[in-house]
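Deviations from the work plan: none for this task. Representative record:
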Amino acid sequence: MNAIRQQSGEAALPVLMLFVTGSAPRSQRARANITHMLERLNCQSVQPYEIDLLEQPEQGIKHSVFATPSLLKVSPTGEVSVLYGDLSEEDRLRRFLSDLDSDL
Amino acid sequence: MNDKETKLEKRKTGIVGLDNVTGGGLPSGQATLVLGQAAAGKTVLGLQILARAIERGEGGVFVTFEESPAQVRRDAASFNWGPKLLESDQWQLIDARPRFGAEAAGEFDIEGLLSIVGASIAKTRATWIVFDGIDQLLQYQPDPRVAIDQVRRINEYCEDNGWTLLLSGKATGDSMAPAHLEGIEFLLSATLVLSARMVNQQLNRSLRIAKLRGSGHVADELPMIMDDEGIQLPYNEHLPVDEVVASNERLSSGISRLDKLLDGGIYRGSSLLISGRPGTAKSTLAGSFAEAAARRGERTLYVSFDEMEAPYVRNLSSVGIELRGPIKSGLVKFEDLSAYALRVTEHFLVLRRLLDSFDPHCLVIDPVSALLKASGTEGANMATEHLIDLVRRRGITTVLTSLSGVEDPEGEATLGQVSTLADSWIVLDYNVRGGERNRSLSIVKSRGSAHSNQERELLLSNKGIDLADVYEYGSEVLMGTARAAREREDAAARRRQQLERRQRRLDIERRMEQVERDRQILVAELELEEDESAETDHLERVQRQQIKQRRDPGQESSLTPAVSDEGEPL
């Protein structure tokens, strides 16, 4: 199930979006790293919504994401933040996800 | 490998100077790196190349990593090609600025970026792609080697997909390359380095081709300017002319005596430098040349630095040189420019454009030394050198004036370059003698002409300029009052001589008259003497008779009775 956060007046955005490019090694690593981290944070209910820029390049323009892999997070206030890279730096990923409530 | 594979294909940038120095443009189907400090003109270069491509009916994609799309549009709007670019739907502007506060947790790819751009290219049928400020994205790459790898990846992608791409990055500090992209300057097959430096409080821009693999190119730092028309390389824009015809035709300076000194005037297509201290009538001489050209029905571009048209023309008119008529009829195009207002390269460009649009037979720049004020000495010398080269190639007869310092009347040091390049050189000066300044003219050189080596006196009157014959006095050349005085003295001496002769004749005549008068007096005296003598003889005779009578009284005197002095009868 994809967690969807409702934004006032705007289309709903997934809480987490993972931008990848096909089966590129770094994209593969990012998939594994985020899944692993969500498990450790006990947030299995949150499933990142995956966007493949090779398939949907216009999504990159829409969300201003040009580096892959990138993890995009929409906070409860609608604020968007981005973490570039294959998410191999655990501390940074943990910090990035720290405000992710397990109530979702 | 055959030739076709190894030969570098080039794509025109539409910037004439750049296309000239690169031998036809930047590598087609490859990425060209554009490096430079902030505000060196990287973004403008990308936009301008895109604008030119769109004018040719091609398409483009501009990806901005640093400036906002609104800022990029504002950048474009400030140039005369901007509005057309902004109206066109043949290109796409992609905002690829990293999100505010973005972080990186590991290495990333740019395949997504390339995929996004690829989709845009398909839509716009782009021939040029610009990645402006790629360093802004790549700085998030934790490992610099990965960042450099990705620059290489971009180039590879360009080659695979036939993209012609401009990749710009900001140089930091003394290095050409962005801080985290050390060494990328030689990674790609072409690298341009833009710079903007302050020289004498003025911004001097330049462009350098640091690398252009497999192609001859100019490796120097090329003066670049950025004005209304965008980026330009003024010295590299004109197309070389194969042959320069050396004319034997002599053009009048408007002063017949000067023409005589120059063996008939200056050659058509040659250049004449007139140098001198302030007030030595340089402008007057230049004006006379333009007036003479107009009389022949030829067009003259008249450039005055730092003096406005109205007073300039009026001042010339006061010495009998009329430019108002030729200006009205369009034979003389008068341009007053401010030396300080522009950089020296910009001045050069302005002059070149004027030459292009007016296509004159003759050119006057008064004074060309004003260019020295516009920027560093190097720049001015380069500009004048290019200018003389340009007019010579076009066969334009040119008169340049140069102001020399008050302390340095010959002024050879100040414009050494010009005096070397100019075909003829006239030095004007003052000659101070007997409490007055007199203008003098001497011909320092005149290529291909026998010319007088003597200094002449230059006379200004409301009827125009004239050269006075030099007055040779021993080994000296006399001028002004000294000359006039000498002339007067000589005339006086001649007059005196004549007077003296007449005087001497008169003296003799007078002496002759005197002698004659004396003779007459003597004659008169002689007569008187004779008369007196006769009287005396008579009286003596009378007296003797009286004495005889007294001695013999009986004898009756037949003569007058003798009466004594006292009246008593004797």
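The first strand of chain B starts at residue 10 and ends at 11.
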